[in-house]
Amino acid sequence: MWLHELEKDGERWRGLAAVETFFKSLKAELIWRHAWATRRETEAALFQYINGFYNPRRRHSALGWKSPLAFERKAA
Question: Do 42 and 50 contact (CB within 8 A), yes or no?
Answer without folding.
Answer: no
